[in-house]
Amino acid sequence: LAAEDGDTRWTKSVCRYCGTGCGLYVGARGDQVVAVRGDPEDHNAGFLCVKGALLPQILSAPDRLLHPLIRKGNGFQRASWDEAMGLVAAKFQEAIQKFGPDAVGFYGSGQGLTEETYAANKLFKAGLRTNNVDGNPRLCMASATAGYVGTYGKDEPMGCYEDLDHADVFLIIGSNTAEAHPVLFRRIVRRKEAGRNVKVIVLDPRRTATSRIADLHLSFKPGADLAILNAMAHVLFAEGLVDDAFMKDQVAFGEGAEANKTRADYEKSLAACTPQAAAALAGCNAEDIVRAARWFGEKGRTATSLWCMGLNQRTQGVWVNQLVHNLHLVTGKIGVPGSTPLSLTGQPNACGGVRDGGALSHLLPYGRVVANEKHRAEMEKLWGVAPGTISPKPGLPTVDLFRALEDGKLKCLYVMCTNPGQSLPNVDRYRKAMRREGAFLVVTEAFHPTRTSELADVVLPAALWAEKEGVYGCTERRYHLLERAVAPRGEARPDLDILCDLAARLGHGKLLPFKAPAEAWTEILETARGTAYDFSGMTRARLQQSHGLLWPLPSAGHPGTKRRYVRGEDPFVPADHPLRMKFYGRPDGRAVVWFRPQRDPGEVVDAAYPLWFTTGRVLEHWHTGTMTRNCRELRHANAEALAELHPQDAARLGVKDGDRVRVSSRRGAETFRAKVAEGARLGVVFVQMHDPDHLCNRVTHDAVDPVSRQPEFKICAVKLEKA
Ligand code: SF4
């Protein structure tokens, strides 16, 4: 690369956007990033989608924040770092002294580097002694995590992207993979084009770019997915498409309230879950459910399931995740190349930094939980703090954290690398909480204004991805090193620097003594050693030489682990591989098939609010649009959130394409332009989530799954009128 490009310096990195984690090189001349190129030796084989390819533009965007800001009245005033950090430290100290440690909190992101998230977690849990540490992965993957932990005993997918190259059947549910994870979708398309009668089943109420390649698009009423998945299991048993030996050897039926159940009990529980009953409820064809089950269960063929926010962002998010796992467990389609459940992730480091690193309110690093005395003692020893330092009380998960800000229990909140003023459900409620008299909000951001930084008391300019160094971990347990390509713009600083500065000002400098991210990484390797995540052999030097490494990777010479659970012959993992095991996390080595009947979502349509409302992604934009709207080409592509509705709904409501319509729920309302679309489902309104000028989250529901505490962004009841 260097020879080809003269004076361009190329540093190794990874895409700043989605959880696919495409490897790339950043090309810089002087202090400017001038290009990116996909890494041909990484999993993405050199490919990037349009967002990744246009990454350089975000660094020099006109609304980059170049110096700290402190609120003065309704506006902001430029401040020095010392002044801004002094104010933040004083406010946090005062709140802790007056009201105790739980009066402060940290809200992080799946976009922070692992070292940054680790430092924040350590400072708040071991230094400030509060577990009020949560982050936006609570909004995107908490239900997937609970699904894995409950079913297999440990979090994170056991398979890898290579499974896409071996799958004969793809079951895609609650994911518009073509737009949200385009490089992975390309891999599915290639597999389909390669023959072998590959079948793609897409379950989605809407016709999408993903369903365009489907052999079967099963459109259903929002919230009926539990019924459909149970009906598929019913067909698998009824037609003998199950793996008796596998279930006998590796599966437990039920746990908790359903403990000690048998396979017969499970079959009995499915007796009434016929395709006809599910179809009547879901508004689809029973034959389609039967066909999907037959394709998924066909003997001798592999099946991979993919899902994302459509399943996770539900009040039954954990249950519906568990029902996907059930299909793999009863058919034994798991642990062989091409057969795996593979949840997709929205952010580039939600898996690595937050989920694995334990930066949620109930977690500690690498599989440990705050409620477990042994886990706390392990972390206290590793962190060099006195026994009893870490509180045994779980902190507040996201929605509760912002409710505590609303009711005054939480006085100070530090928000890093995320935009809750746009991304929270029922967002106006929490926007008010962030501006409540007596609440103190600190936001570290690369851009200003955002819908959160506009609410802050202090805004600290943060370095962007190519201006700093650290580790990102993507969907398939692959960790990448991002090298620094250029210096931060203006006075911006990496979040790790800012946190170390804050720690020193709060009297906890010894906890965060890091002069460079590499020092934090060395410490992180030790916290993972001996856990189920063990990547202690993943030194910075190895990461630098690699194109991403998959954990577990417990020693210097270890190759990394493509599949954590393996059945039979596997070309990638030898039979004597030390990480070959039964379902690793559970004492009996068996995975759990769960009994999960159909339940309504948190809100259903009625006479007052007769339409379903759902949200999703588009190819050209990402999350709250802060970065993608800073790219010229993307700003003009698909940037406005439109209210997509079915032609019959439009005709009934007297709405034409392009009309302004007001969409209201019991919580709030927003105005959009209407898009009358044949692919919309009758009775369902869809809006993309990326537009800061038209906030779909004014309408969405902040009810949460009782286990994962993940909110139900994907379903609520609305009415739609011409504006
Ligand atoms: Fe980036 Fe995701 Fe596109 Fe890959 S697929 S280039 S990670 S946005």
TrEMBL record:
Enzyme Commission number(s) from the entry: 1.9.6.1
Which residues lie in coiled coils?
none
Keyword flag 4Fe-4S: yes
Entry-linked Pfam families = Molybdop_Fe4S4, Molybdopterin, Molydop_binding, TAT_signal
One GO BP: nitrate assimilation
- Which UniProt keywords are listed? 4Fe-4S, Electron transport, Iron, Iron-sulfur, Metal-binding, Molybdenum, Nitrate assimilation, Oxidoreductase, Periplasm, Signal, Transport
Catalytic activity, as annotated = 2 Fe(II)-[cytochrome] + nitrate + 2 H(+) = 2 Fe(III)-[cytochrome] + nitrite + H2O
What does UniProt give as GO cellular component? membrane; nitrate reductase complex
In what residue span(s) does the 4Fe-4S Mo/W bis-MGD-type domain sit? 8-63
Q: InterPro entries this protein is in?
A: Asp_de-COase-like_dom_sf, MoPterin_dinucl-bd_dom, Mopterin_OxRdtase, Mopterin_OxRdtase_4Fe-4S_dom, MopterinOxRdtase_cofactor_BS, Prok_molybdopt-oxidoreductase, TAT_signal, TAT_signal_bac_arc
**Transmembrane intervals:** none
This chain's function reads: Catalytic subunit of the periplasmic nitrate reductase complex NapAB. Receives electrons from NapB and catalyzes the reduction of nitrate to nitrite.
- The protein's name is nitrate reductase (cytochrome)
Origin organism is Anaeromyxobacter diazotrophicus
